[in-house]
Amino acid sequence: MKFECDIQENLGKLPKTLEERYSQIYATICAESGSSSRVANIALMWIMCSPRPLTPEEWTDVTCYASQPLDSRIDLGTLLDICHNLVVLDWQSNAVRFAHLSVREYLEKYHFNIEESNVMAAKCCLSMLIDCEGLFPAASYHGCFRYSTINWAYHVDECCSGDKCGDILNLLRSFLGHPSKASKTYSNWLSGAKAIADKDHSRGNLKQSTLIMLYRIESVPLNPLFAAAYFRFGEKFQELWESDRFEIGCKNKVGETLLSIASDRGHIRTVRALLERMADVNNDSTSPAIDQSGPGPSKSSPIQSEKFLDRARTNPQFFGTWTALDQSIRAESGRIRWVLLIYLVNI
Q1: Which positions ≥6 away from 214 have C-beta within 8 Å?
Q2: Which of the listed residues 157, 197, 229, 273 has the most CB atoms within 10 Å of its CB?
Q3: Bridge partners of residue 182, in order along the sequence
Q4: Ramachandran quadrant class, 177 (left: phi over 0; alpha: psi -120 to 50; beta: rest)
């Protein structure tokens, strides 16, 4: 409203609660013509499901990529405008966020939940990586690529509890490839992810646990099932374990088996799937022996991947020798411990 007479007329019609006000704003968003309403909803969903605050570049990039087909790029000002003050830019932290925690609560209650948001984000991240074969894009979507490289598995894990995962499984299979031959996209992704993680960790912007994760899912030859054993999506998508063309006792680059990783991570359905394929409970693994957020490579200098891997193999502060049963005890997973013990009794 631009005129005083209109303001005076509406003074007595102001909403009595925040929910009523948010409903008015959301109705305004939905009434936008063209693609604005759809794009605004996607933008809001990204802020809802991201594991950390998004930078302006990331937010505009992931929203634009997830909003295809759009015939033009989206700038920050446009996104903020079509979200009608539900989203603000925090200049100090250089991140976008909801204007208030109650905005998130309102959207979850009435419009879209976390799972729906994560399904959208998982599809976007996997499609982004597949489209560029895991390689850094030359022209555009740099923010989306970087975000997808680090966070695709988080979103796949978070949307695994529902029944809207058919498309996710197809994308996941395309991204991962076959246990006996990982896809080119997956191979390129892992190399790029380690380079990004090394750089971010040296700046203090990445937890050591993320860096160690990348080494725990790497093997020679490269087998994407180590990612399925490490992340929760291996629990949901049991179809990934149906292949009979992989070495059940294969080990990653630091000496862990698939069963050892799944036991350490507390993934009981994955453990059962591997035991059904005669995985050896007593096969020793070399596995992380400490809290992965603990002491690690210095943040003051860049990490050289091979040097870090050599240290991981030899430093008992990082790694020790464990069987799958040891891992279940260390992870305090009583259910997995019983599954392993019953299996040992019955063989």
Answers
A1: 190, 193, 194, 197
A2: 229
A3: 177
A4: left
- Report which secondary-structure segment, H or E, holds 87: strand 87-90
Integer Cα distance of 337 and 35 in angstroms: 52
Is 293 inside any structural domain?
A: yes
- φ, ψ for residue 302, nearest 5 deg: -60, 145
> What tokens appear for 207 in the block?
């937890």
How far apart CA 109 and CA 289 sit, in angstroms, is: 42
Counts of helices then strands in the chain (DSSP H, E): 18, 6
- The structural domain count of the chain equals 2
Using one digit for the tens of pLDDT, what is the confidence trace for 278-329? 888 877 666 554 344 433 333 333 344 455 455 544 554 455 556 676 666 6
pLDDT of residue 130: 96
- Encode pLDDT of 92-110 as tens digits: 999 999 999 999 999 999 9
9's tokens: 């007329």
Amino acid 77 reads: G
Element (H, E) at 95: strand 95-98
CA dist., res. 337 & res. 174, Å (int)? 33
Report the alpha-carbon angle 44-94-159, nearest 5.
35
Q: Which amino acid is at 298?
A: S
DSSP for 192-221 reads HHHHHHHHHHHTT-S-HHHHHHHHHT-BSS
Buried b (16+ CB within 10 A) or exposed e, 26-65: beebeeeeebbbebbbbbbbbbbbbeeebbbebbbbbbbb
Domain presence at residue 60: yes
**Residues 214 and 190 sit within 8 Å (Cβ to Cβ):** yes
Range of the domain at 54: 16-114
